[in-house]
Amino acid sequence: RRPKNFPPGPPILPVLGNMLNVSLKNPLKDFGRLRRSYGNIYSLFIGPRRAVVISGVNAIKEALVTKANDFSGRPQDQLINDVNHRKGVVLADYGPGWREHRRFALMTLRNFGLGKNSMEERIHGEIKHIIYTLEESIGKSLTPQVMFHNAASNIICQVLFGTRYEYDDEFMRVIVRCITELSKMANGPWATLYNSLPMIRNLPLPFTKAFRNAETCQKLIRDLVIKHKKTRIPGEPRDLVDCYLDEMEKRGNDGSSFSEEQLVMYALDLHFAGTDTTSNTLLTGFLYLMTNPHIQERCQWEIGQVLGGKDRVSFEDRHKMPYMQAVIHEVQRIANTVPLSVFHCTTKDTELMGYSIPKGTMVIPNLTSVLNEEGQWKFPHEFNPENFLNDQGEFVKPEAFMPFSAGPRMCLGEGLARMELFLIMVTLLRKFKFIWPEDAGEPDYTPVFGITQTPKPYYMKVQLRATQ
Ligand code: HEM
């Protein structure tokens, strides 16, 4: 039964709750339909578990920014928490362990951006490998999925471990396979059963594979940490793992949350959070640029005007490229790479938009509902850079641009992601023309739902541009 003054929602069935009201494979359509019936805050029962879905920029900001202290925790009783031993940062509950690790990641990312081998340098280094791959495919069709995934993974691997990997490298192959299977499992039907029925957790059911996969990844990272410990020079960190080991020494036994076991999950978390997100956004970008050649040509014209004979683009150049900026932001809006997030209410009954939310309620901000919200965008349902341009052709960012979420748990890799998207897209558009192959049929823009959404696999053709 719904508690007093709980948000409204569809009728609840015994045991199942509202599990028949939403497709577990892709709940986004059902979430949109329920919003039209019940408003910006409505409730659902996932089995016996209370959940509240929040839609629209105002309600989401109220929850994630104004009431951040109440709604920044993560549920701790899910399959994925048992798999990661409640360590890392992405799924850590709101508390000192999460805060210390978040701060440390932000600080380390900032320091690497400023150092001699700066982040920009690393990204340009990786772009060279993308260019080799594209040059080998000139005149042929290629599937860019692996290439972009690899590039994003390598950029974050350089920050974490000070190294990049070839795609067929055993280490990378195993990690990518385990993480892909884990994230599929984490929002699939077996996880829902594990989360709602504690009595089945010790049975030999398919979710046991999630534990095996996690153990495999953890072992690989543990070995890397051991290697780092053997070769590091204290006080002269090469990467985030070295910085973390320095920090552990500095802290000694101060009772802080820093430990080697934490480091293993933390590195896996940052790799996971920084790979699929960026690569799926890039994939969406090139899909839309190929199928909208007039937009691609206008980007290329602006890039030519601003860069002239300069040998390569720098992140600072973005301020002189309003159209390119608008296109990249529009790509992020339409890609909607992280469609939903999940929190839980950590304090006792909290008031939200006139409703009462009891402690322990799962809170699901529907980021999709903001990125295509009517009234917030000039063209909410189509790919159109005008969404980010004013009448003078200047770049503007509407309040509802929230692909990185909002509040204390918003994406901590936003700065890195924005730099990657800009440098990669500008460099590639300057050098190549991207063409939707004639025999590829009509493009299908419907994304595949997941923790991160991805476009359906597609082929691209590349040509060297005449000016190169
Ligand atoms: C276009 C690329 C990216 C997008 C769209 C994106 C989006 C997001 C979103 C929406 C969240 C919040 C999830 C929530 O509220 O539950 C998030 C969290 C996070 N992101 Fe990103 N992200 C991107 C790239 C990156 C990169 C490159 C990194 C690498 C450092 C990263 C690291 C993280 C981490 C660690 C969190 C968890 C923060 C916390 O819980 O305190 N992200 N991201």
Structure, explained:
- By secondary structure, this protein is an alpha+beta fold.
- It has one domain: Orthogonal Bundle (Cytochrome p450).
- It is 48% helix and 7% strand.
- The protein is built from 15 helices and 9 strands.
- β1 and β2 form a beta hairpin.
- The chain is globular and about 65 Å long.
- Its cofactor is heme.
- Keywords: Heme, Iron, Membrane, Metal-binding, Monooxygenase, Oxidoreductase, Signal.
- GO terms for molecular function: heme binding; iron ion binding; oxidoreductase activity, acting on paired donors, with incorporation or reduction of molecular oxygen, reduced flavin or flavoprotein as one donor, and incorporation of one atom of oxygen.
- What value does the Rg take, in angstroms? 23 Å
The strand order across the widest sheet is: 1-2-7-4
CATH homologous superfamily classification: Cytochrome P450
CATH class descriptor name: Mainly Alpha
Q: At the third CATH level, what is the topology name?
A: Cytochrome p450
Work out the helix count.
Answer: 15
Structural class: alpha+beta
Q: Average pLDDT, to the nearest integer?
A: 92
How many domains?
Answer: 1
User: What is the strand content?
Assistant: 5-15%
The beta-strand count equals 9
SSE order, one letter for each helix or strand: HEEHHHHEHHHHHHHHEEEEHHEE
Tell me which ligands are bound.
protoporphyrin IX containing FE
Overall form: globular
Spatial gap, N to C terminus: 67 Å
> What portion of residues is helical?
40-55%
Binding site for heme: 411
Organism: Anabas testudineus
Keywords: Heme, Iron, Membrane, Metal-binding, Monooxygenase, Oxidoreductase, Signal
GO cellular component, one term: cytoplasm
